[in-house]
Amino acid sequence: MADRLQKVMAQAGIASRRKSEELIKAGHVKINGQVMTELGYKVATKDKIEVDGIPMQQPEKHVYYLLYKPRGVVSTVSDEKGRKTVVDLLTDVPERVYPVGRLDYDTTGALIMTNDGALMQQLTHPKYEVDKVYTAKVEGLPTNDQLQTLRHGIILEGKKTKPAKTKILATNTKKGKTTSLVQITIHEGRNHQVKKMFKAIGHEVVGLRREKYGFLDLTGLQPGEYRDLRFEEVEALQSGFANFKQQGRL
After folding, report:
1. Stated pTM of the model
2. Residues carrying an active site annotation
3. Which regions in the chain score pLDDT beneath 70?
4. CATH numbers and ranges of domains, the chain
5. Which of 22, 111, 217, 247 has its Cα between 20 and 30 A from that of 191?
């Protein structure tokens, strides 16, 4: 994925982005032996960049994937217990990638994998508030009052959760035991948060899947499969979804 020259220079530690722009405009930068003064020039991985005659090493190419995490896989790069990790599933990805946030061992669903540290930090920062939509299979049938509690926020470990959106999708009674499928949308990322929220209102979670991460969903993917994020999807993530919102695509 091509990036603007000044951004590539900043990522390589040559100078700040603004200072890099000044170097470009002043004719200090060459691309493949030719002086480049165009600020919007998109640099390809194969391009050879020189600053004042000194070759610049381009940073590792950033890659972005959406993984449908299956059950029984840990959301880490390595596991001391020898369990399969989400990285093990990306069999044809040569870059060293990392999961953005975590899904529990027994939780399935949408998980972004990337080596873009800046984007990872942005997406996991509390101020980012990206919506995450889950389908939770819970014991029993939550009442509207109980769900209303989650919508207003509840105290977990001394701190109130942000308001959630909830909706009952289906119920099932088998051998005298009732379970419900509940859709819940949150934008926090506390440890085991969804499970703890339902437990707090008296309904244990027996199955959990993250259906959407922001505008990204599992369409076309089966558990264990993954796909490249499209250029416009990456741009939307980097811009806080502003581009997609402006285009009416969210």
Report:
1. 0.75
2. 104
3. 1-2, 59, 241-250
4. 3-56 (3.10.290.10), 64-127+218-246 (3.30.70.580), 131-213 (3.30.70.1560)
5. 217
